[in-house]
Amino acid sequence: MLPETSPLLLDFRLRQKDFVLKVHIESDARTIALFGPSGAGKTTTLEAISGLRCPDIGSIRVGTKVLFDHEQKVNLPVHERCVGYVPQDLALFPHLDVLHNILYGAPNHDGVDTKIVDILEIGSLLQRSIKDLSGGERQRVALARALMTKPAILLLDEPFAALDLALRDRILPYLERVRNELGVPMLYVSHRVDEVQRIADWVVLLSAGEVVRSGVPSEILGEEL
Amino acid sequence: MNEFFEVTSFTVFMAALATGVMLPLGVAIAWLLSRRDFVGRTILETLVTLPLVVPPVATGLILLKLFGQRGPVGQVLAVVGVDVIFTWKAVVLAMAVMGLPLVVRSARTGFEQVDPRCEGIASTLGAPPMRVFWTISLPLARRSLLAGAVLGFSRAIGEFGATVMIAGTLPGTRTISVSIFRNAELGYDAAAASFIIVAVVIGFIAVHLSNKLEVPS
Predict the structure, then answer these.
(1) For position A221, what pLDDT does the model report?
(2) Of A208, A205, A199, A172, which is closest to residue A36 (Cα–Cα)?
(3) Distance in angstroms (rounded) separating the CA atoms of residues A46 and B146
(4) pLDDT at A1 over 60
(5) Is the pLDDT of residue A167 over 90?
(6) Chain A contacts of B123, Cβ < 8 Å?
(7) Domain boundaries defined on chain B
(8) pLDDT tens, position by position, A103-131
């Protein structure tokens, strides 16, 4: 079973050339949006949680699992973190069909989780090649692939950035269904106010590598508008 | 005629064995060079490329000194009863050393074209590094790896300088290139020409195939 909630604790610093990211987020909200302009450090934050980048100091905890703790010398390898990550470019595996893409991370090569397939309505796509999918279909497959690992948290990096508004409006309900029916905690990166209002129940405003404010969407986004 | 088929089949077989040696080694080196930053990286890169720029005869002489009875490697191999110099193993060794740079170059290009995001995401899906390599990096770079193997094989077929130094020109270790040289030296132009035709045909097919493989599908 997927966890109902996953309190998230991020407290780290990461230097990357001239950019320094200092993040402190502590929340037990189910869907957190990282909101802010380009270059604020949103993607780097997700990469630090997933283990693709290593902070210099601090700690990262999802639920009771410590992923990184500089003082305790804990730095779990990426493949042991149990974090579902959907990057902006999706990074679907072009040499595998849809079925093998979504089965890639299935624990012990279990069969397809039909609930995930049903929610995202990708049953008819399973035998298709990645190259034959439309933009919206690719989004749903990437989402299914990340969910199939039964992650402790789902990291979504501007999942709709490459879609036009009409297509985005058709895909957003799928994400709402994932949130409501699977109960997977999400950390959602976006710089679109309407998206964040619809998806998130807690917003963290990031700017120039630092957390500026955090709170419920109406409070934070109201000030931004 | 017998000599023609004997030498041709021997050369092709030795080149295939050499490809079997250089491919896994070349792929491992190429992956390290394209994906890892480590002390001595440029030294390794230079060492692997060296056979491309050093005269093949010089490479052969270095191998002779290393694998000869008094050489450091030769002495170790002698303990386990393995004699390399002036045997078929010397032919494979010379071919593999001379073909390795081509395999590494091609494979490295292949790995560099693989989107690192795909490898990273495979890790987030629970795949340990070796699984990522076998299921993502290797299949996505496969065309370049095959192209490298074909180029390495064709280089092995044409190898002459290093082979002469460590395998000699005696029957039993005589390759197509060595036979061209011997026949031309003895004035047997027709025999030399038949070996040249074989070398050109194999070379043409290999380079054509390699070029086709390097063009993305």
Answers:
(1) 78
(2) A205
(3) 36
(4) no
(5) no
(6) 51-52, 77-79
(7) 2-54+88-214
(8) 998 876 667 788 888 888 899 999 999 99
The residues near B107 (Cβ < 8 Å, ≥ 6 apart) are B26, B27, B30, B31, B141, B144, B145, B148
Distance from CA of B148 to the nearest CA of A (A): 20
Report the chain B residue with the minimal C-alpha distance to residue A51: B124
CB B117 within 8 A of CB A89: yes
Q: Which of A79, A89, A93 sits opposite B136 (nearest CB)?
A: A93
Higher pLDDT, A218 or B103: B103
The distance of B137 to chain A (nearest Cα, Å) reads: 10
Quick one: tokens of A76? 């779990």
In angstroms, what separates the C-alpha of A207 from chain B's closest C-alpha? 25
B24 touches chain A (CB under 8 A): no
Residue B163 has pLDDT above 60, yes or no: yes
Q: Is residue A15 part of a domain?
A: yes
Question: Collapsing DSSP states into helix, strand and coil, what is residue A135?
Answer: helix
Q: Are residues B117 and A87, on separate chains, in Cβ contact within 8 Å? A: yes
- 163-192 of B, contacting A, C-beta below 8 A: none
A2 domain-assigned = no
pLDDT digits (tens, 9 = 90+) for B49-83: 999 999 999 999 999 999 998 999 999 999 999 99
- Chain B nearest-CA distance from A183, in A, is 19
**Number of domains chain A contains:** 1
CATH number at residue A173: 3.40.50.300
Query: With helix as H, strand as E and coil as C, how does B141-183 read?
Result: CHHHHHHHHHHHHHHHHHCCHHHHHHHCCCCCCCCHHHHHHHH
| pLDDT tens-digit readout, B169-186 | 888 899 999 999 999 999
pLDDT band at A223 (very low <50, low <70, confident <90, very high): low
Looking at the domain assignment, is residue A53 inside a domain? yes
Gap between the Cα atoms of A170 and A173, Å rounded: 7
Distance between CA atoms of residues A124 and A98, nearest Å: 10
Which overall architecture, per CATH, does domain B2-54+88-214 show? Orthogonal Bundle (1.10)
| Residue A213, in any domain of the structure | yes
- Pair B44, B26: CB distance under 8 Å: no
| Whole-complex ipTM | 0.89
Q: Is A209 on the interface with B (CB under 8 A)?
A: no
